[in-house]
């Protein structure tokens, strides 16, 4: 049964009082994330690396008939990828170890269609190994994309292909250190529509060999596609799904985009997009790289809507991230740092009409401490709950941040925000879900007091963090 409350949060320099003394620990929802899923979402921005024979044929999709000898990057440097990713604030890089064309970026013993048959490094190179070592050195996690569709392999379309795929999967899971994410889709060749991928066996093999890995697909089980390749989550975005009802490759994209408040599994939304119009490098697109301002906009529409931002940066024929891409990446990180470095609500004291109980870990002051491990929990027996915070002086701001303690589940489904303007209150924003993080862009306003109305949620509400910011002038001016 859904419990509904009305919560008013106002921002003030005072203390708090306890109205109700609930006993016991604050209850979790029935569906909550794993520790690995929480850590994954805290990374916020992740890099995707599409690289292979398509880079040298100037195609997006290969044919599987490419001669491996065309793969010959002149000055490949995975350390340049990793150092650029780290400067851009990325917590992980996912490499296309094998795309649909079947060409492998590691010397697989199950095919000759790989770097071992290329002139690069005299056929002795291993890009997956090099990237694994570079990521470990810089403290960045690594993920693997292994396409189930393989245009080159003769076994594809037969029952034996699943074993072939598992053999290559075991190579990647066994020989390259810790793999934090395995990314797979349901793409198939049109001429072999009856190819049935054994996703259940794929998953069990991954969990056996890499117990801490998270698996991505339309149906998760840990991370889901957000339903588009534009990097945009739904304005309503639940981290739950009924994943057993989803057929990989044929999923309802609207369902993936918004999640399900009644979902039975926690499956985080990953918002994928390329920094260029294409996923692989094309010289003709050097002038079409997404600007830092555009990337910032996508950050608000992915991370700022309870998702993660998966941004593809394709190496060029040299084997380097192009200078234009790197420049926009670094500028993007600089914009985020400038906007979110000064939280105008930091450590403001809070008054509430009720808390879960008198323990420090549930008190309202936790809302403004910028610590995700602490939170305020409401009293369970009140119909109207009020938090009051004053900024103490008028501050100018145009960005608002809310977070829930998602380790206890995702609860809030409707809210609005008012600011005090003179003697009147003015509504400046409204929304539905919050989850890990909700970022709101409003027109600039000066005020010393705010109110947040939480009007609907599925369990006793809790808020981990609340922040106010003034956006960098380099941001694109967008009101949501």
Verbal overview:
With 480 residues, the chain is of the alpha/beta class. It folds into two domains: 6-33 and 343-469, Jelly Rolls; 44-340, TIM Barrel. 20% of the residues lie in helices and 25% in strands. It has nine helices and 19 strands. The strands form four sheets. It has an eight-stranded parallel beta barrel with strand order 2-3-4-5-6-7-10-11. Strand 15 and strand 16 (424-431) form a beta hairpin. Helix 8 (292-302) packs across helix 9 (323-340). It is globular and about 75 Å long. The chain starts with 5 loop residues before the first strand and ends in an 11-residue tail after the last strand.
Please state the overall shape, judged from the principal axes of the Cα atoms: globular
CATH superfamily of the largest domain: Glycosidases
Main sheet: strand order: 2-3-4-5-6-7-10-11
Count of alpha/pi helices: 9
**SSE pattern, N- to C-terminal:** EHEHHEHEHEHEEEHEEHEHEEEEEEEE
The helix content is 10-25%
Second rung of CATH, namely the architecture of the largest domain: Alpha-Beta Barrel
Low-confidence spans: pLDDT under 50, at least 5 residues? 1-21
Give the tags.
single chain; alpha/beta; Jelly Rolls; TIM Barrel; eight-stranded parallel barrel; 19 strands
Sum this structure up briefly.
With 480 residues, this protein is α/β, with parallel strands linked by helices. It has helices spanning 35-43, 54-57, 78-87, 127-138, 161-175, 199-209, 253-258, 292-302, 323-340; strands at 6-11, 45-49, 92-98, 141-146, 181-183, 214-217, 223-225, 240-241, 265-266, 268-274, 308-312, 351-352, 376-377, 384-403, 412-421, 424-431, 438-457, 462-463, 465-469.
């Amino acid at each position: 049964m859904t419990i509904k409350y009305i919560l008013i949060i106002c921002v003030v320099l005072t203390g708090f009082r306890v109205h109700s003394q609930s006993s016991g620990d604050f209850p979790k929802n029935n569906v909550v994330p794993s520790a690995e899923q929480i850590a994954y979402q805290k990374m916020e921005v992740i890099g995707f690396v599409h690289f292979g024979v398509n880079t040298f044929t100037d195609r997006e999709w290969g044919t599987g008939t490419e001669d491996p000898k065309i793969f010959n990057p002149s000055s490949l440097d995975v350390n340049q990828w990793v150092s650029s990713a780290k400067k851009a604030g990325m917590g992980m890089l996912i490499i296309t170890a094998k795309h649909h064309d079947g060409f492998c970026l590691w010397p697989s013993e199950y095919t000759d269609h790989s770097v071992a048959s290329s002139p690069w490094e005299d056929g002795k190179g291993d890009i997956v190994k090099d990237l694994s070592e570079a990521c470990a050195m810089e403290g960045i996690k690594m993920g693997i994309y292994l396409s189930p569709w393989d245009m080159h392999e003769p076994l594809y379309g037969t029952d034996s292909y699943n074993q072939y795929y598992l053999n290559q999967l075991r190579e990647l899971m066994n020989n390259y250190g810790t793999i934090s994410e395995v990314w797979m889709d349901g793409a198939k060749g049109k001429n072999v529509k009856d190819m049935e991928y054994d996703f259940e066996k794929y998953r069990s093999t991954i969990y056996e060999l890499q117990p801490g890995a998270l698996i991505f697909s339309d149906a998760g089980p840990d991370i889901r596609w957000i339903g588009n390749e534009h990097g945009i989550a739904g304005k309503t975005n639940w981290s739950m799904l009924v994943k057993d009802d989803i057929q990989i490759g044929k999923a309802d994209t609207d369902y993936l985009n918004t999640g399900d408040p009644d979902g039975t599994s926690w499956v985080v939304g990953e918002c994928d997009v390329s920094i260029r119009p294409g996923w692989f490098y094309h010289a003709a697109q050097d002038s079409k790289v997404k600007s830092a301002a555009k990337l910032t906009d996508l950050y608000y529409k992915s991370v700022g809507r309870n998702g993660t931002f998966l941004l593809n940066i394709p190496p060029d024929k040299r084997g380097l991230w192009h200078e234009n891409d790197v420049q926009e990446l670094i500028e993007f990180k600089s914009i985020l740092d400038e906007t979110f470095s000064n939280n105008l609500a930091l450590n403001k004291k809070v008054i509430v009409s009720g808390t879960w109980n008198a323990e420090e870990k549930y008190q309202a002051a936790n809302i403004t401490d910028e610590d995700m491990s602490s939170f305020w929990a409401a009293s369970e027996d009140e119909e109207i709950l009020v938090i009051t915070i004053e900024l103490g002086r008028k501050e100018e701001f145009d960005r608002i941040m809310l977070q829930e303690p998602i380790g206890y589940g995702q609860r809030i489904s409707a809210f609005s925000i008012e600011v005090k303007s003179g003697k009147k209150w003015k509504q400046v924003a409204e929304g539905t879900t919050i989850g890990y993080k909700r970022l709101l862009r409003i027109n600039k306003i000066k005020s010393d007091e705010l109110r947040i109305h939480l009007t609907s949620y599925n369990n006793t509400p809790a808020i981990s963090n609340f922040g106010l910011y003034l956006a960098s002038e380099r941001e694109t001016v967008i009101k949501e």
